[in-house]
């Protein structure tokens, strides 16, 4: 997959991903660079995936989800996902982001709601603010994102991560 010596994404893989996803060449290349930073070997193991996913969704069953992802997308059955397998992992929509924010917003005690910023004091406002980190479609509105891109984007941005996690006030 790709040119292993330079770490560059091969033209064949790039063209295939442009054809089979809704991402632009620039988006694919940027995402590949992020993937290589997180996974310098060019592959992600189930354990690494679980670790990243559990940081993103700390109260979830990361092990079960990782098993599902690897069963579904590890097309060559080698126990790892390469960039191509990872990028076609699935999509997340704005309504799914809103659902995530609503579920997490319910964890915030009522007495702490008044301490939230005006643009974060409802689940809907949090979802809208989070989605803006990923604006890239027509009229500044992406219809969907690859799940891996969403996870990576949130992990790379502390503000975005805070919008989907509840941290009890000290």
From TrEMBL:
Gene3D superfamilies hit by this protein: EF-hand
The keyword Metal-binding appears for this protein: yes
InterPro entries noted in UniProt: EF-hand-dom_pair, EF_Hand_1_Ca_BS, EF_hand_dom, Recoverin
Keyword Transmembrane included in the entry's annotation: no
Keywords, comma-separated and alphabetical: Calcium, Metal-binding, Repeat
Annotated Pfam families: EF-hand_5
Domain EF-hand, residue spans: 61-96
Domain of life: Eukaryota
GO molecular function: calcium ion binding
The protein, known as: EF-hand domain-containing protein
Organism: Mola mola (Ocean sunfish)
């Amino acid at each position: 997959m790709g040119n292993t010596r330079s770490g560059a994404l091969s033209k064949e893989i790039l063209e295939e991903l442009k054809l089979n996803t809704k991402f632009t060449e620039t988006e694919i290349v940027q995402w590949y660079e992020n993937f290589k930073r997180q996974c310098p070997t060019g592959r992600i193991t189930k354990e690494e995936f679980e670790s990243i996913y559990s940081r993103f969704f700390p109260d979830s069953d990361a092990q079960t989800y990782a098993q599902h992802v690897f069963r579904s997308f590890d097309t060559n059955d080698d126990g790892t996902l390469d960039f191509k397998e990872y990028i076609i992992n699935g999509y997340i929509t704005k309504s799914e982001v809103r659902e995530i924010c609503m579920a997490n917003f319910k964890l915030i005690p009522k007495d702490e709601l008044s301490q939230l910023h005006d643009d974060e004091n409802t689940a809907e406002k949090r979802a809208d603010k989070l989605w803006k980190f990923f604006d890239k479609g027509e009229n500044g509105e992406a219809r969907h994102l690859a799940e891996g891109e969403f996870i990576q984007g949130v992990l790379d941005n502390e503000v975005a991560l805070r919008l989907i996690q509840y941290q009890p006030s000290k």
